[in-house]
Write a structure and sequence with these properties.
The two termini are about 30 Å apart. About 50% of the residues are buried. The protein has a single domain, classed as Rossmann fold, CATH 3.40.50. The longest helix has 23 residues. Helix 2 runs antiparallel to helix 8 and helix 3 runs parallel beside helix 4. The chain is built from 9 helices and 10 strands. Helices cover about 35% and strands about 15% of the residues. The strands form 2 sheets. Strands 2, 3, 4, 5, 6, 8, 9 and 10 form an 8-stranded mixed sheet that branches. The protein has a two-stranded parallel ribbon with strand order 1-7. By secondary structure, it is of the alpha/beta class. It is globular and about 45 Å long. The structure holds S-adenosylmethionine. The site of S-adenosylmethionine has 21 residues, from helix 1 and helix 3.
C-alpha cells in the first residue's frame, strides 16, 4: 500500500498517453487531466457523442445506489474498486450524508488517483475513509488491506463501476468478482456498471477501437449475458439489469438509456 497524497514521482504519472481515470475526469467536467487526455477525450466524443452522458449517468447511478444501500438497507461499509479521480459526490460523501458512521475503502491502480487521494479521505469523524493503491486483479490483497478499515464479517457493498471492462478476459473478471463476494457474508451487495454494445450508443464500437489504439488501459464491451454472469449466485435487486441511467431513476422510466449496464446484486 502506498501512502495517499505522498508526492508521486513524475515518472509514475505518464503525461504522454491518455489514461482512463483522467479522461473520465475530463468527460465529467473535471480539471485533473492533461492535453493528451483532452485530445483523446475529444476524439472519442466526436465518434461517440453520448460518452459524456454515459459518465454522468454512471455517477448519478452511484449516488442513487449508495443512498439506497446506506439508507434503506442500512449497510455502512463500502469497498469502491476502480474509484476514479475524486469528483462531486464521492462514495463516502454520499454514504456519510445518509449514515455518518459509514466506512469506505477506495481502490484504484492509477498513480494519478493516488496523487489526488487526499480528497477521498475527508471522512466524517464518526466514519472512516481509506485509500488503497492496488490492482483489481489482486482481490486477495485488496481484501486483506480493506480488512484494516472494514469489518469483513459484516455485510459490505462491493462497488465495481466501469472497471471490469478493463479486465479483458471474461473468465478472469468473473474470478475476481467471485473471490471478492465469496469472502464476504450474506447480505453483502455487488454494484456494477459496464459498457455494452447492446443499448445503442452510436459510434461506441469505433470509439472503443480508437481508444484501444491510442489510450490505456484497453477496454472491452460486454453483452447482457456476460454482464449477468458476474452476478451469478446473487439476488438481483429491482429493476434488474438495465441501462444505469434507468436504475430507480424515477420519471416513470422515461429517462433516456445510455450504453452502460447497471445492476445491484445481494448475496443471499
Ligand atoms: C471509468 S473509471 C470509473 C470511475 C468510477 N468508478 C465511476 O464510476 O465514476 C475506471 C477507473 O478504474 C481504474 N482502473 C482501471 N483498471 C484498473 C485495475 N486493473 N485495477 C484498479 N483500478 C483500475 C481506472 O484507473 C479508473 O480510475
Amino acid at each position: 500500500m502506498t501512502e495517499p497524497g505522498r508526492r508521486i514521482a513524475p515518472s509514475r504519472v505518464r503525461a504522454d498517453i491518455a489514461h482512463n481515470a483522467r479522461v473520465w475526469n475530463y468527460w465529467l467536467g473535471g480539471g485533473d487531466n492533461y492535453p493528451v487526455d483532452r485530445a483523446v477525450g475529444d476524439r472519442v466524443t466526436g465518434m461517440y457523442p453520448s460518452i459524456g452522458e454515459v459518465a454522468r449517468a454512471d455517477r448519478a447511478f452511484l449516488g442513487r445506489v449508495v443512498r439506497h444501500l446506506a439508507g434503506d438497507v442500512g449497510i455502512g461499509q463500502f469497498l469502491d474498486i476502480g474509484t476514479g479521480l475524486p469528483t462531486a459526490d464521492n462514495t463516502h460523501e454520499v454514504a456519510q450524508h445518509t449514515a455518518p458512521d459509514a466506512r469506505v475503502v477506495y481502490v484504484d491502480n492509477d498513480p494519478i488517483v493516488l496523487a489526488h487521494a487526499r480528497s477521498l479521505l475527508t471522512s466524517s469523524p464518526e466514519g472512516a475513509s481509506e485509500y488503497i493503491e492496488a490492482d483489481a486483479r489482486d482481490p486477495e490483497r485488496i481484501l486483506s488491506a480493506a480488512g484494516r478499515t472494514l469489518d469483513l464479517r459484516r455485510p459490505v457493498v462491493v462497488m465495481m463501476l466501469g472497471i471490469l471492462n478493463f479486465v479483458l478476459d471474461t473468465e478472469e473478471a468473473r474470478g475476481i468478482v467471485a473471490k471478492l463476494m465469496d469472502a464476504l457474508p450474506s447480505g453483502s451487495h455487488l454494484v456494477l456498471t459496464h459498457p455494452t454494445l447492446e443499448l445503442g450508443g452510436e459510434g461506441n464500437e469505433a470509439a472503443m477501437r480508437f481508444w484501444n489504439e491510442n489510450a490505456t488501459p484497453p477496454i472491452t464491451a460486454r453483452s447482457r449475458f456476460e454482464f449477468a454472469s458476474f452476478l451469478d449466485g446473487l439476488d438481483i435487486l429491482e429493476p434488474g439489469i438495465v441501462s444505469c441511467s434507468r436504475w430507480r431513476a424515477g420519471a416513470g422510466g422515461r429517462t433516456p438509456e445510455v450504453a452502460q449496464f447497471g445492476a445491484v446484486g445481494r448475496k443471499p
